[in-house]
Amino acid sequence: MAQPKRLRQVGGILIGISVGLIAGAGGFTFFYADGAAYLSNNPRACANCHVMHEQFDAWSRSSHHAVATCNDCHTPHTFFGKYFTKAVNGFNHSLAFTVGGFHEPIQVTTRNRRITENACRHCHESIVHAIDHTGDNEPMSCIRCHVSVGHLH
Fold first, then answer.
1. CA distance 47 to 53
2. Residue 64: phi, psi to the nearest 5?
3. Domain 41-145 has CATH 1.10.3820.10
4. Stated pTM of the model
5. Could you report the average pLDDT of every consecutive run of 10 residues in the chain (153 residues)?
6. How far apart are CA 102 and CA 105, in angstroms?
């Protein structure tokens, strides 16, 4: 009867060590990568990665610099949507940079393109409403024509 109790104790110790190692590595990575910055609205956080320097510099010279941060255009305008998007993008970026599978220059995903399109429509609703549909009743895409508004290219 002592054998199963001993196995449970060893299993508990191994789980504790595993959790500790994961928490320690995660905490170190969060600290080393200045993870708290990614929870803020500070555009400099987006420029932590070298592939975003060009976009940050271009935004700094754009017309939106005085009125919008990265999050205003690249995350939904709800609390959950914003942080869910930040988590998904952060995970995807971290994975791509760690294993080397990122595209340079960085490219927007279909989901993130939709988020950006919705952000344009949110801030410019009165203008977009007046010109929203083409002759065939298809909604127009803001970023199709205004691709460099936020990031002068």
1. 5
2. -85, -10
3. yes
4. 0.71
5. 72 89 83 78 80 84 87 93 91 81 80 92 84 67 80 66
6. 9
